[in-house]
């Protein structure tokens, strides 16, 4: 989720359902791969703040981008997905008790005094109180003091205050509380029934918007703007709650709030800010929401189609079309089969147009234009921005890896993390921010296109094995995951609109001239972080495309060789391997997929030398991101399996084997340990060089010693810390390990 009281998104016609899915690359025949947890297309970013803090676009990622702690994958590599985060991704169950206990003794908060002012007979005093609360709750340490004073129940009725100004500032205060308070606070807001007054407010706004649209000449502009401004804050609050709480989505469905979002979306020609807010909300609530599909009457689809086919060449409208394209993709199952191909083409055309834009050049041009504003205006803007950047605003954000961070990570945000909350006062900066938001969303939508749906927990339980049973295994060419592929319509559209090429272009970071131009102004510097995020999303998108397209669809062997050189440069162009965890996860995911596809087609591995691979893997093994560690371990397994077939490689294999054994015995994550054992089995499965290296390493003795430790760790840690699919994978690794040890012991006796 990610929008605050300040500022604020899909596209289509019709679509029925033929499930598309993902092409799994060939691999060992007894292993499967759980998908890394919780990547959302918006990456679960929170909504923006009020009073001088502009809404930032939902990223999300991710999230799509349920959100879980990093999980990584083992065995077959599944594609990443940005998925809507669910309530309490960190696993907290104590409502807001934990937050309240965090109140520091030295944190001053006039919570009680301000909440008392909400009962004042003066609307000006009530408005002042709401505005003050809106500003204060941007400070994370202050939030528990407001929760202790029952701020949610005090602010809720203010949404229906007789004063329209109080309604707007109350909606802004609740919006900021939901944005900066975290997922638990959002769920607590839903529990305390804030959606009842919010729904009533939205219905009143809906009536006002209907009146304005029916008789625009009879309404004063000020009245219309008041209604739309209140609607904008209310829609933002609704978006925040639905992004964080499944309860809120249920209320959204039950109360028929879809019609209100569609009505706001229809205002896109008159109020693009309101339309973008509604589009963001629609993209959130339509994801994996079969109950809502029945409410999508032809009129609603018509509105989506009108927006999708609009042609305004302004970045805000580009962002709106991109978001609507995401909504259309979410609801494609209700489009008639006769219109499926046209709808998919329309969606991917919009995404291609968004990615076609040269963000570096456009931002540089906008920055140069912004430098031409009058001096007095520039100085005023700079002073205000410096005041805002000095505010200690610490909303809980996502770590940019597609997963929601653990609480300790979330608390360690810096001023860089809150750049999205700052106001975009200049028109040029607003255009630049909208362009980057559009491109990030486009990449996340493509990531989700290249994903299949995971089996439900019940389905996993049916496949799950008991402790030592071999029943879960499939012999021969069978796998626990059926190899699925993209639908013909999606595959064709991705190729026809050159999506792989456009995604590859986005994996290159922006040029130094644009970076320098942004660095010149404090208000533009946060765009650099956004551009880095787009690079990471593009690498994740590339990983998924590599997983679902065949070699020819990717441009043939020559294109893969060029890609391997490009990815190598991204990692080794500097004196040392980048340590940013988000980048490491994304780039290692792409390299891993490329190595897999080249290995499966017997193409020479040209991503990097064995020495470079060791450098990258050692850097990745130290990364706090579990998925990055899983990736480098898997890369070692793929490369080692290839090298084992060559002559005079025993020493290199020993080096790889020792690295993997270090991971097995020292990594804190069972998922990483399982992947490392899997890689060892791949590297030392066959070949005289592998046999020689294994004997010199005393590999069997080491693995036999670790076997009971591994089994005990699964028993102790498996139930509480792992998902069902991860437990199933670890069961398979345990069985594979036992068989591998027996196989190597038999070889030694010959």
What does this structure look like?
The protein has 750 residues and is mainly alpha-helical. The protein contains 34 helices and 4 strands. 56% of the residues are buried.
Features:
750 residues, 2% strand, mainly alpha, two-stranded antiparallel sheet, 61% helix
List the helices and strands and how they pair.
Blueprint: E1 3-4, E2 40-43, E3 47-48, E4 60-63, H1 97-101, H2 111-117, H3 123-136, H4 143-148, H5 151-155, H6 164-181, H7 183-191, H8 195-214, H9 221-244, H10 246-255, H11 258-265, H12 272-285, H13 290-293, H14 298-308, H15 315-330, H16 340-356, H17 359-370, H18 375-390, H19 407-411, H20 427-449, H21 457-463, H22 488-496, H23 499-506, H24 512-519, H25 526-548, H26 557-572, H27 581-600, H28 610-621, H29 626-643, H30 650-666, H31 670-683, H32 688-697, H33 699-721, H34 724-749
Parallel strand pairs: 1-3
Antiparallel strand pairs: 2-4
Helix pairs in contact: 2-3, 3-6, 6-7, 6-9, 8-9, 9-10, 9-12, 11-12, 12-15, 14-15, 15-16, 15-20, 16-20, 16-22, 16-23, 17-20, 17-24, 20-25, 23-25, 25-27, 26-27, 27-29, 28-29, 28-30, 29-30, 29-31, 30-31, 30-32, 31-34, 33-34
């Amino acid at each position: 989720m990610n929008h605050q009281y300040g500022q604020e998104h899909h596209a289509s016609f019709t679509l029925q359902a033929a499930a598309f899915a993902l092409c799994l690359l060939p691999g060992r025949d007894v292993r499967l791969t759980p998908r890394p947890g919780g990547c959302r297309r918006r990456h679960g970013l929170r909504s923006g703040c009020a009073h001088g803090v502009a809404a930032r676009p939902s990223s999300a990622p991710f999230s799509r981008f349920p959100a879980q702690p990093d999980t990584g994958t083992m065995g077959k590599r599944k594609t990443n997905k940005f998925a809507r985060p669910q309530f309490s991704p960190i696993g907290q169950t104590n409502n807001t008790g934990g937050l309240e206990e965090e109140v520091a003794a030295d944190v001053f908060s006039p919570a009680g005094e301000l909440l008392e002012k909400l009962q004042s007979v003066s609307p000006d005093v009530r408005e002042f109180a709401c505005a003050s609360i809106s500003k204060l709750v941007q400070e994370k340490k202050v939030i528990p003091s407001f929760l202790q004073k029952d701020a949610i129940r005090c602010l809720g009725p203010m949404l229906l205050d007789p004063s329209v100004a109080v309604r707007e500032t109350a909606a802004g205060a609740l919006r900021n509380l939901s944005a900066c308070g975290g997922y638990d606070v959002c769920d607590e807001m839903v529990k305390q029934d804030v959606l009842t007054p919010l729904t009533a407010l939205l219905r009143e706004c809906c009536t006002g918007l209907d009146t304005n649209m029916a008789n625009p000449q009879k309404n004063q502009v000020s009245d219309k703007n008041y209604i739309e401004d209140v609607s904008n804050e209310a829609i933002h609050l609704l978006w925040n709650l639905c992004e964080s709480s499944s309860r809120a989505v249920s209320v959204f469905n039950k109360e028929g709030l879809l019609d209100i979002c569609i009505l706001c979306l229809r205002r896109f020609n008159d109020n693009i800010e309101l339309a973008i807010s509604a589009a963001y909300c629609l993209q959130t609530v339509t994801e994996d929401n079969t109950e809502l599909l029945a409410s999508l009457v032809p009129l609603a689809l018509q509105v989506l189609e009108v927006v999708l086919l609009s042609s305004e060449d302004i970045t805000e409208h580009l962002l709106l079309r991109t978001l609507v394209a995401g909504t259309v993709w979410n609801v494609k199952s209700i489009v008639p089969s006769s219109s499926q191909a046209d709808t998919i083409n329309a969606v991917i055309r919009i995404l291609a147009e968004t990615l076609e834009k040269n963000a570096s050049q456009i931002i540089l041009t906008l920055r140069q234009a912004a430098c031409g504003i009058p001096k007095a205006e520039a100085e005023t803007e700079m002073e205000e921005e410096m005041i805002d950047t000095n505010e200690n605003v610490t909303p809980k954000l996502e770590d940019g890896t597609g997963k929601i961070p653990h609480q300790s990570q979330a608390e360690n945000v810096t001023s860089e993390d809150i750049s999205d909350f700052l106001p975009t006062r200049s028109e040029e900066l607003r255009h630049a921010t909208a362009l980057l938001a559009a491109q990030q969303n486009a990449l996340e939508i493509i990531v989700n296109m290249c994903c299949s749906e995971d089996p439900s927990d019940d389905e996993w339980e049916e496949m799950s094995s008991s402790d030592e049973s071999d029943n879960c295994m499939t012999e021969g060419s069978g796998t626990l995951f059926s190899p699925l592929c993209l639908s013909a319509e999606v595959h064709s559209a991705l190729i026809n609109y050159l999506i792989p090429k456009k995604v590859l272009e986005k994996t290159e970071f922006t040029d130094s001239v644009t970076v320098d131009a942004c660095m010149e102004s404090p208000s533009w510097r946060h765009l650099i972080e956004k551009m880095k995020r787009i690079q990471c999303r593009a690498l994740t998108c590339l990983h998924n495309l590599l997983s679902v397209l065949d070699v020819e669809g990717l441009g043939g062997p020559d294109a893969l060789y060029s890609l391997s050189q490009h990815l190598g440069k991204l990692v080794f162009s500097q004196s040392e391997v980048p340590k940013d965890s988000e980048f490491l996860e994304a780039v290692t995911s792409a390299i891993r997929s490329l190595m897999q596809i080249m290995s499966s087609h017997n193409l020479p591995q040209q991503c990097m030398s064995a020495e470079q691979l060791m450098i990258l893997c050692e850097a990745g093994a130290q990364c706090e991101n579990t998925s990055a560690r899983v990736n480098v371990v898997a890369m070692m397994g793929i490369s080692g399996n290839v090298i084992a077939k060559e002559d005079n490689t025993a020493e290199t294999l020993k080096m790889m084997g020792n690295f993997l054994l270090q991971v097995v015995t020292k990594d804190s994550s069972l998922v990483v340990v399982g992947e490392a054992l899997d890689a060892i089995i791949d590297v030392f499965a066959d070949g005289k060089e592998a046999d020689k290296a294994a004997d010199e390493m005393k590999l069997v003795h080491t693995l036999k010693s670790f076997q009971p430790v591994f089994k005990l760790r699964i028993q102790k840690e498996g139930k509480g810390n792992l998902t069902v699919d991860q437990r199933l994978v670890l069961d398979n690794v345990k069985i594979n390990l036992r068989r591998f040890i027996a196989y190597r012991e038999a070889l030694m006796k010959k």
